Structure formats: C-alpha cells, structure tokens
Amino acid sequence: MRLTYFFLAFALVVLGVFTIAGFRGDHFSKPPFEIFPDMNYQDKVKDQQPSTFFSDGAASRPPVPGTIAEEMPGKNDYWATGKWDETHWGDGIPTHDAIDGGRPLQVDAANMARGRERYTISCEVCHGAAGDGKGITSKYGLVGAANYHSDMYRKMSDGEIFNTISNGKGQMLGYAYNVTIDDRWRIVMYIRALQRSQNATFDDASPEEQTALQAKMKPATPAAPAPAPDAQPAPATPPTKSASNAKALKSECTSDLRTLDDRPSVQDWENFHHNFADGESKTISSQLAESYSPNTDEELKQ
Q: So what's the pLDDT on residue 74?
C-alpha cells in the first residue's frame, strides 16, 4: 500500500516537472500554458507600433513643442561635441559661468575634484587609478583599456577625448547617457592632470615641495678635480761636476766642436771655452780647445 502511494507521488512529480519546464521554449500553434508568465504579456507601448490610446493612433510621442530633453544641448557647438567644426577636434576646456543654479565650468580645484570623483565612478574600473589602463577589469580578462600616458593619448586633443567619453570607442561604450556634459569636461581635466602627474618635472613642484624633494635627494658625488695644467719644462742645467760623467761630457763637447761652422772665428772658441768655465768641465774644455782649435783662420782654411 505504501509503495502504491510512493509511485503515484513520483509520477505526479515527473508530470509536473515536464509540464512546467519540459516544454518551455518549444514551438506550438497556440500559446503554451504558463504557470509563471514572468511578465511576458503585459500592457505596454512598443516603438513604432500603433496604439488606440492616443488620438493620432501612434504609440511614440513627439516632443512637446518649444521644449528639449534635459541635458540636450540647444546647439551642436564645441561644448556639446568637442569639435570646432564638422572635421576638426577642438582643444581647451569650454569654460562658462553657472547655469540654472549649477556650478561654473572652469579649471580650478573644485572642478578638478569633481572630475576625479566622476572618473573614479565611471572610468577607474577599466583605466586604473593612475590612468595606465590597469584597472580591476584587467585582472579578469578585459584587456586593451587605453593607457593615457602613451604618446597617442598625450597628444590627443581635448575635444576628441570628450567625444570618446560621450560616444565610446572600440570596446568602450559611451557615457553620455549618465555623465553630464560639464562632468565629461571635468573628467577631461582630471585625465590631463593624471598625465601631468606621471610626467612631471622638478620645476612643476611648488617651492615647499621642491624643498622637501631636495632634502630627500642623496648628496651628489663630488666631481673629480680638474687635471693640473701641463708643467712648463724645467730649464736646462749644466752637467754635474762628478768624475763619472767626465767621459760623456768630453764626447759631447767634441761633437759640438766638430759641428761648428766651417769657418769659426776666434770669438766662437772663446765663447765655447767660457761655457765650461768651472771645475772639471773647465779642464776638459781647455784640453779640447787645445786639441781642436786652430791658432789662426789661415790654419783653419787648410
């Protein structure tokens, strides 16, 4: 008896499963029976479909005359498109005063802080906090986000960056639907600040920051002293009076005598003798003079 109830209950469960899920998605000539329709059928208006609700029979409604949608620019100028004209991107932030109680758009700390806030919410997840394209999504296989510090994006005009934020590019979707025009320009400001921060020079820092940086810098290695200028050659000194150099001195003097002019005068010999007028050198020079000097010019000629 108990087995009978068991098999009966089991059959009901199987039938219920097939009834609810087994035929869902199959094609029938009539709508299938649905226990949970999940709002597949409801009263609603579809685009470009007729409707008996409105007198003109159209479901889509035109704008009320004299009005525009919120955040819809009144004209397609540089502020709204990022273009100077149809073919040229513009550069610079289109500043303006406060409109309808809003905040003014200008390059200052308040607008930069707002740009950082909007960037953190909408951009940082892919482009990273530093703008290097290494956001959290790169850890999960979504690669290719722009690195703002590459030359391509550093040279890109402000208007083109604004347009990319508005309409998207590549894998990136546009954010015009949930980021206002002014906030998009504030994000452009902050991106430029990120680029400057990663490529700053020492002169970009404030005087206080420069002082702090200098305190952290290691002392520079002292430069090597400049080489001393070449010393002037020392003046020639006469040979020493030691006996050991007598032989060499005699040979030198003999060579000098033999290379005199073919017709040396008596004065030449006297000058030569005078140059060795001290000590041992005098003795040697006297001997050489007696051996080689002629008594007269006539003898020299012979």
A: 65
Residue pair 118/103 in contact by the 8 Å Cβ criterion: no
In Å, the largest CA–CA distance within the chain is 171
Q: Please write the tens of the pLDDT for every residue from 274-300.
A: 444 444 444 444 444 444 444 444 444
AA letter at 87: T
Q: Side chain identity at 257, as an amino acid letter? A: L
Question: Cα-atom radius of gyration of the chain, to the nearest Å?
Answer: 52
Q: How far apart are CA 117 and CA 123, in angstroms?
A: 10
CB count in 10 Å sphere of residue 297: 11
Report which of 191, 193, 214, 194 is spatially closest to residue 202, judged by C-alpha positions: 214
Q: Is the dihedral of CA 89, 95, 96, 98 positive or negative?
A: positive
Does 104-199 carry CATH code 1.25.40.390? no
Task: Report how far residue 30's alpha carbon sits from residue 270's, in angstroms, rounded to the nearest whole number.
Answer: 148
User: What's the confidence (pLDDT) of residue 278?
Assistant: 45
Give residue limits of the domains in the chain.
104-199, 244-301
**Stated pTM of the model:** 0.51
In one-letter notation, the amino acid at residue 134 is K
Q: Which residues contact 47 (CB under 8 A, 6 or more apart)?
A: 59, 60
Q: Is the separation of the CB atoms in 112 and 182 below 8 Å?
A: no
Q: 125-133 contacts: CB < 8 A, separation 24 or more?
A: 126/172, 130/194, 130/198, 131/191, 131/194, 131/195, 131/198, 132/198
Q: Return the closest-CA partner of residue 107 out of 194, 197, 190.
A: 190
